[in-house]
Design a protein that fits this description.
Blueprint lengths: L3 E2 L5 E2 L26 H6 L5 H20 L5 H12 L6 H5 L3 H19 L5 H6 L2 H24 L6 H10 L3 H11 L3 H25 L7 H11 L3 H8 L4 H16 L1 H18 L18 H14 L5 H23 L4 H6 L1 H25 L2
Antiparallel strand pairs: 1-2
Helix pairs in contact: 2-3, 2-5, 2-16, 3-10, 3-16, 5-9, 5-15, 5-16, 7-8, 7-18, 8-9, 8-10, 8-18, 9-10, 9-14, 10-12, 11-12, 11-13, 11-18, 12-13, 14-15
Length: 380
């Protein structure tokens, strides 16, 4: 029996092509596979991210409840820990790796962007200028030394993928939020981002217990201790938890210095985007543009949103209720994003490079703490 080709290049048997009675044509009695789902059927189908987003929301709820019971434990740190735990619990692990993976990845990327935008409402230009130019210069020096030193050490230690630059970003700027921003621009592997977040979160959590013990041996007054904490601890919540042990003066200075580091997120991400564009431009591309690599924007949209929120906050016209609501939204969004990133951590894989990752984490901690301490001494 001869085979007949249809218009799409498929080969069909006579009598089974389009329009054949009782065959696969749309005008026949049936297709053999049932009718194609109509608009109503498609509308009823839940989005593929639904399961993962629901799981992330559950994780955020648990993290919030524990934080309410234990206020000294930052909610964002709990979110990362819960995400890692969910990825390894026998009853939950298949869901995390299967049906929920798309939604958890969506949370780790998209919700992270929204949280970073709202983070801009924590900072105003008056806050930055109020620090004084000497402190601003100190913060710039600490960020540059930490980023360059950590990145160089990570490459020398042979860490895979984007882990060196992501860990350097997390230590230098603002922990997991910065890792998410730079990872988005570089299109980093989710496992590299998850490993970097886990390491930075762990070290930042340890700082809450370790740094207050060093205030007296290092001869720092409360304000100096606050500036040191703000210059050397990663996440904003961890900064607050660490600095509040020395009183309100330490807490105020710590938050201001930390927010100055947060402000450097925008130029750093823009610099990374320029680097990525240059690297992709160096790859040979067809003259007609077919097959050309996708170029990231010079300044990603969420970074522009962050800067817009800083400008809006600088007007001093936002009611306290709006700022409180934005703070709550930012915490919830970042917690969901960190739960999603934590769920991508695979401890057996991490163990294979755990020695090098831990060594880099310790070295980077010494770099940022040493640079921050030196900067405080020079500016007091």
């Amino acid at each position: 029996m001869a085979l007949i080709g249809d218009r799409a290049g498929r080969r069909t048997l006579p009598g089974t092509g389009p329009g054949a009675g009782g065959g696969t044509g749309t005008g026949g009695a049936g297709t053999g596979q049932g009718p194609a789902p109509g608009p109503a059927s498609r509308a009823r189908k839940p989005p593929r991210e639904a399961a993962g987003l629901a799981l992330a929301a559950l994780g955020v709820g648990v993290a919030w409840a524990v934080h309410r019971l234990l206020p000294d434990v930052p909610m964002l740190t709990l979110a990362v820990v819960l995400g890692i735990t969910a990825a390894h619990l026998p009853g939950v692990r298949p869901l995390v790796r299967g049906e929920a993976r798309a939604g958890l990845s969506y949370a780790g990327k998209r919700l992270m962007r929204l949280g970073i935008v709202l983070l801009g409402l924590k900072l105003s230009l008056d806050d930055v200028l109020g620090l004084g130019w000497a402190t601003v210069a100190m913060v710039l020096g600490v960020v540059a030394a930490t980023f360059a030193g950590t990145w160089w050490l990570g490459r020398r230690m042979g860490l895979p993928g984007d882990q060196p630059v992501l860990i350097a970003t997390g230590y230098a700027i603002c922990g997991a939020s910065a890792i998410g921003a730079v990872g988005e621009v570089r299109d980093s592997d989710e496992r590299d981002a998850a490993t970097s977040v886990a390491l930075v979160t762990l070290c930042g959590t340890l700082a809450i217990a370790v740094l207050p013990l060093l205030q007296q041996p290092l001869g720092l007054d409360d304000a100096g201790f606050g500036r040191w904490v703000g210059a050397s601890v990663h996440d904003v919540g961890q900064v607050v938890a660490t600095a509040q042990t020395a009183g309100p003066d330490a807490l105020t200075d710590a938050v201001l210095v930390k927010l100055m580091r947060v402000a450097l997120l925008a130029p750093l991400v823009a610099a990374v985007a320029i680097s990525v564009r240059a690297r992709r431009r160096a790859v040979a591309e067809p003259a007609d543009g077919v097959g050309a690599a996708r170029r990231p924007p010079l300044v990603p949209l969420f970074v522009l949103g962050f800067l817009a929120m800083v400008a809006l906050r600088s007007t001093d016209r936002l009611p306290a209720g709006v700022l409180d609501a934005a703070h709550t939204g930012q915490e919830l969004l970042l917690a969901a994003a960190l739960f999603g990133l934590g769920s991508a951590v695979h401890l057996p894989s991490l163990a294979r490079t755990g020695g090098r990752v831990a060594a880099l984490g310790l070295c980077a901690w010494l770099v940022v703490a040493g640079a921050g301490y030196g900067g405080v001494l020079l500016t007091t």
